[in-house]
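NAD-dependent protein deacylase (Shimia sagamensis), 233 aa
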Amino acid sequence: MSKSIVILTGAGISAESGLGTFRDEGGLWAQHRIEDVATPEGFARNPKLVHDFYNARRVQSTAAEPNAGHFALVKLEADHPGEVLIVTQNVDGLHEKAGSKNVLHMHGTLHGALCHACAHRWPAPTTMSPEAPCPSCGKPVTRPDIVWFGEMPYDMERISNALAQADVFVSIGTSGEVYPAANFVTEADMFGAHTVELNLEPSSGVSRFAETHFGPATQVVPQWVAEELARAK
Ligand code: APR
């Protein structure tokens, strides 16, 4: 029986790959001010500070390896060909590195570059700098292809359509603090999907999930995928 599964992932699925989360103790937003490194205004004020922030994260994520949580989603996708969509808030590229094929980056990716002037996109070099000219228009206003606060996430129409048709919606490793992603569970539930939260601890939206499992992603994600595959037999 065909089943459409939409999976939302956040920084928590990459935590055990050694990449920091944002809002946990000592997280990225305890070390950097969002308004300085994750807004268009911060970029306009000090592009070098922004590039330095993302250059460091790009080096870290390039060196990071996917974990059992990422690999469990690859297995789920392989067993449900064409029925699994991963909508990730993460920009680290670990889902693709693990082998996931159908991945949508709603907040962009560290491994992409974008021209703030002409919107040209190209693969990001390891180190980006304010002086580097856009390969297309030549202007020195290149930025990481990351969606900043106050900007519209990518592919929202595609995401809404997927949520409207989902039989199962699974949220993994996200605090449920940032919209529109924090509202996906409500959208999916409205259209009759079974909703699941797999997280280290209850997120802000925990009460809106029909099923919850708490623990490290490397444990709760493979466990849930194994149960889902057994159900599908
Ligand atoms: N396994 C599972 N979940 C974990 C683990 C782990 N090992 N470690 C932490 N978590 C959970 C935390 O309990 C928390 O609920 O992951 C979540 C991380 O929350 P955030 O740090 O807020 O990250 P995220 O939800 O992805 O942030 C959303 O906010 O700053 C923006 O654009 C940024 O995409 C990001 C968005």
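Residues 35 and 198 are 30 Å apart (CA to CA). The chain has two domains: 1-18+66-107+153-233, 20-63+108-146. ok done for today
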